[in-house]
Amino acid sequence: MTRWTRHLPLIAALLGIAFAVPAQAEEADDPWPGLVQDIFNSRAMNDGSGVIGIEMPYRAEDAAIVPVTLRSKLSPADSRRIRSITLVIDRNPAPMAAKFELGSDANVTEISTRVRVNNYTDVHAVAELSDGQLYVSKVYVKASGGCSAPAGKNAEEAQNRLGQMRYRQFAREEAPASRIREAQIMIGHPNNSGLQMDQVTQLYIPAFFVNQLKLTQDDSPVLSMEGGISISEDPNLRFTYVSNGAKRFRAEAKDTDGHVFRNEWDVEKPGT
After folding, report:
1. Which parts of the chain are beta strand (E)?
2. Buried-most residue among 94, 95, 125, 157 (CB within 10 A)?
3. By three-state DSSP, how is residue 211 classified?
């Protein structure tokens, strides 16, 4: 037996330790348990596979505008309803991307928006139901640099479009008599994350983003959002809801500088 042969078991053991450490370190570095404590006060999390769906691309084409869709998976026969959905991008600098409150009579079953993703990360959707319980689903997304990516529009263009809103409706496959509507709200706003650098001055651009949005049909709540720096430039929400027969759809948004933006539209004549 040669000297190297005699030491093979020891070398193998050391290599096993060396390769095991990164996996253990990655597992130990999982931010989710801490986020459950910080965002949800350590409340119990139930399996949400039959309650809330979350869809995102596994590998994002542009980390600054990653599409995400949140969808209710509750059976129509289920007497419970979703009260709120919290979107958490675990490894973002500010992990809580948005919290959506759903109107009690609006029956919102689907919400789509665009987010920034700063690192390869798990993304969690946490639904709070009318039974008071939390249900969680997750996906994994490969993207990086989304929170520090330069703005798509220059500062002057962004300022000129600040607070401009558009409301659109989309045809549904259901019968014309159905009260289910699919709509979209778009808001002109730079939604600066505070991590982007001015390419001329080389200074960081202060955080400046839409942090509140309320949508109503007449005065009945449809959907509200508490947003953070992870929501992409020019916030964009597409969603389904059930019409209560209201003739006007209203939106009110606020940003971190105290601006308030309001608009309303004839439900039958949506547009700018």
Report:
1. 45-47, 52-55, 66-72, 82-89, 96-102, 110-115, 121-129, 134-141, 165-170, 180-187, 210-217, 220-227, 236-242, 248-255, 260-266
2. 125
3. strand
d(CA 266, CA 227): 26
Indicate the Cα dihedral angle 100, 102, 107, 109, nearest 10°.
10
Written as one letter, the residue type at 7 is: H
CA dihedral 83, 261, 216, 209 (to 10 degrees): -20
Question: Per DSSP, which regions of 74-156 are E strands?
Answer: 82-89, 96-102, 110-115, 121-129, 134-141
Q: What's the pLDDT tens digit per position in 157-182?
A: 888 899 999 999 987 765 555 689 99
The tens digit of pLDDT for each residue in 222-265 reads: 999 999 999 999 999 999 999 999 999 999 999 999 999 999 99
88's CB contacts (< 8 A; 6+ apart) are 35, 39, 95, 96, 97, 123, 124, 125, 126
pTM, full prediction: 0.87
Q: Which two tokens stand for residue 54?
A: 């979350």
